[in-house]
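Handover notes (outgoing to incoming on-call)

Open items:
1. GNAT family N-acetyltransferase: sequence verified, structure written out, both below. Nothing else pending on this one.
2. Nothing else urgent.
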Amino acid sequence: MKIYKLETLKPNVIEAFKRLIPQLSEDCNVPSEKDLEDIINSECTNLFVAEENNEIIGTLSLVFNKIPTGKKAWIEDVVVDKTVRGKGVGKELILFAMKYAKEVNHTTINLTSSPEREAANKLYQKLGFLKRETNVYRTHLH
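GNAT family N-acetyltransferase structure tokens:
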């Protein structure tokens, strides 16, 4: 398995996201080709993929931003293809993101995960992420 940061958009990437994003959540919109190009070219968002036998089997977004209280790093949209779950792909993606963030001088990473994603939550805790007591709020802008 190979994990790397996407630098260019190839047809296999578009097809992989069409397959993977619905596995993350049924109500997520699959990114368009333009969306993926914008993400890949973003200064703040890093899109990592796990590939095996020339097929993308997982992805993770690592987002950096700077606000008045400091530099922040967030892991978002971790998804591993259902055909290879439980084989360490998610773990390797997270470790890759952690190493990358450390190399660019970030000292902490945040992430959120739905409680029903039991295996993912156990993995995050095993990798040293601590559960925080906080509230997450969302509103839809119409």
